[in-house]
Write a structure and sequence with these properties.
single chain; 17 strands; alpha+beta; about 30% helix; about 400 residues; 10 helices; Nitric Oxide Synthase, Chain A, domain 1; 4-stranded mixed beta sheet
Length: about 400
């Protein structure tokens, strides 16, 4: 039997009972870790609130703690030593698309901080019974477009953004004419029950770093660049059973994320053959290890360029050591730390880093961040029956702080 009165108008009893269980677990954790005393009074308030509304509202302190612990619980992140430094921007009153876009740009500027990157999360309106929260359809607030040619046989730019680029075009985006490899996509924001709307990302909100090499003068001629702040925006934040569908967050880059993956992956910018040719390496056989040598120099260039530009970036050796420090701290606090070996171990010099040589427990626990299903970059997020695809909408203005 449900512990909650009059719940049938909001959701099935089992759903609300599950919410209450999640709330009790989180609130108990909050009170324990913050030495806030017994949680009984707060839990009684939450039971009443869920019974009356079908959900409950976190206090500002609970929201801050929950967002930070979500980072701490992210099994795929190697940079969790800094979880307590996360700056939480409470924007739960914001749900309209123009306001969400404006706050995203403010987030970008605050996180960039002139190159001294600050970990920041902006939490928008949560899902509630009968009213979902807003959605940001971009995988990151800054992302380069992937322009498919007329035949669909090649892509200029980032292939990972091809679907979102197609959606932006359908919604009226005119950028990238002619297309280049580094056209910043507009923000695509969807308010509850509405069609997605485009918002330009102004140049002054995006700090970019031109990629050069400390020894190879030709490297700058490759025309590579990358943005300074990786703000993940297509995941939802779950705190105590409450879902925040738009909660963009960022740390700072580790060099291999850009060098090994964004630039190095065959399915992304695929720069290893280009660099190998400029280095005079034979690519006739993998046995020459040309990929390894090109990959190393590519990461050297990324680290050098970010450092020369005064932009925070980490190397995979240092971060590996710091992650083991984080594990040690968590163990001393009596907490198990989830970790996915396949993500924690860097994609370059793997066995030369200390995180390679041990096993981890990989398990799920909340608060945490989760991917939206279906994928946020797919047109399936359009509300059925609204004719959104036939009636593209666009906000022409670019918001300024």
């Amino acid at each position: 039997m449900s512990l909650l009165p009059d719940t049938r108008s909001f959701a099935p009893d089992f759903a609300l009972d599950s919410l209450l269980v999640s709330a009790e677990r989180f609130i108990t954790e909050f009170h324990c870790e913050n030495h806030a005393g017994p949680p009984d009074r707060r839990l009684r308030q939450i039971r009443r609130e869920i019974g009356a509304t079908g959900t409950y509202r976190h206090t500002p302190a609970e929201l801050q703690f929950g967002a930070r612990v979500a980072w701490r619980n992210s099994a795929r992140c190697i940079g969790r030593l800094y979880w307590k430094s996360l700056r939480v921007r409470d924007r739960r009153a914001v749900w309209a698309a123009p306001d969400v876009a404006a706050e995203c740009l403010t987030h970008l500027r605050e996180a960039t901080n002139g190159g001294r990157i600050r970990p920041v999360i902006t939490v928008f309106a949560p899902d509630a019974p009968g009213r979902p929260g807003p959605r940001i359809l971009n995988s990151q607030l800054v992302r380069y477009a992937g322009h498919a040619n007329a035949e669909g046989t090649s892509i200029t730019g980032d292939p990972a953004s091809a679907d979102l680029t197609r959606m932006a075009r359908d919604l009226g985006w005119q950028g990238g004419r002619p297309p280049s490899r580094f056209d910043v996509l507009p923000l695509v924001v969807q308010a509850p029950g509405a069609c997605p709307v485009l918002y330009d990302v102004p140049a002054d909100a995006v700090l970019e770093v031109a990629i050069e090499h400390p020894e190879f003068g030709w490297f700058g001629d490759l025309g590579l660049r990358w943005y300074a702040v990786p703000v993940i925006s297509d995941m939802y934040l779950d705190i105590g059973g409450v879902c925040y569908p738009a909660a963009p967050f960022n740390g700072w880059y580790m060099c291999t994320e850009i060098g090994s993956r964004d630039f190095g992956d065959v399915g992304r910018y695929d720069q290893l053959p280009v660099i190998a040719r400029h280095m005079g390496l034979s690519t006739a056989s993998d046995r020459t290890l040309w990929k390894d040598r090109a990959l190393t120099e590519l990461n050297v260039a990324v680290l050098h360029s970010f450092g020369a530009a005064g932009v925070t970036i980490a190397d995979h050796h240092t971060e590996s050591g710091r992650f083991l420090q984080h594990l040690d701290r968590e163990e001393r606090q009596g907490r198990a730390c989830p970790a996915d070996w396949t993500w924690i171990v860097p994609p370059a010099a793997s066995s030369a880093t200390p995180v390679f040589h041990r096993y981890y427990q990989n398990f799920d626990q909340t608060p945490n961040f989760y991917r939206h299903v279906p994928s946020a970059s797919q047109p399936a997020v359009l509300p059925a029956g609204t004719g959104c695809a036939a009636r593209p909408q666009r906000a022409r203005q670019a918001f300024m702080s």
